[in-house]
Amino acid sequence: MQEPQAETWTTRGLPGRQQFRNFQEVFERTHFHWDLKGDCADKYHGSIVRRHFDDYVFTHIEADPLAGRRTADDIKRGDQPYFCLLYLEAGHSHLAQGANQCELTPGSIALWDSTRPAFFDAKSTLHQFSLLIPHRTAKLALPGIEDLCGMQVRGDRGMGALLKSHLKQLHSTIDSIDARDRPAVLRATVEMAAATFRPTTEALSGTAFRRSLLARVQEYVIANLADPDLGPQTIAAAFRFSPRYLHRLFAEFDMTVCEWIRQRRLGRARVDMETRGLDALSITQIAMKNGFSDSSHFSRSFRAEFGSSPREWRETSRTQS
After folding, report:
1. Full set of structural domains in the chain with CATH
2. Does residue 319 surpass a pLDDT of 90?
């Protein structure tokens, strides 16, 4: 692991009317691009510390009241994607992302995603520690993490108390941890955060989270329709939950996993057969292109779904075009 790279900055010593403008510039360099607003008529106090440990980033901010909005245009400016795990040491802040919003108080722990619009509004002096976790690492540890951004856990009970204590110790000691041990410590931190934010079985039942999770599973299925091995086992493995849970997730919304996959594959195959640019492909090739491993099974399924054979459908669409 590389030696940490640290950047420390403060408004102290700067002319009063330049303090907030300089703080904005450093904040954007260390915490992504935001449209920031603060009470900066005469002076503004702010300090920022940023440390890199390979793909992870630790930050510490102390600042006067501050609000920020991160828009789609800000996101397009090309920052590396991170999930931010923040711990509020002091102050009060409103955080919103997607359908979620929360009121952060001292001891609160929250998540937000650098690849989606977000908003925060700290009405009082802010004292915040953050750990920026690479997107892929966080997604592997907690599938569906996107749906938890903009939410918080309390740091005074259960796993929240354990995570808060760990984060405070981590920020104060990470520099002194042997470079050979840091990867294991950071992995353990991500796993602890995942366990803390992972919804309970009760919370997953019949909630907006389950509907949102279903949408993400369906997006995954659509992106992998061409894979003939796509099925409940592989999908469940990709999201790190059991096939039984996957079936329950679909059943809650009056669907079955296999039927939903079959309908998407047939629909895509039908579009392919109606597309002039794919005339050179045989029906068998179109079937294989869309994840069917047996052309006879494809033909039977197509007729059952659309009332005619694939060949008849293709000929009819050519006649009508």
Report:
1. 5-198 (2.60.120.10), 202-321 (1.10.10.60)
2. no
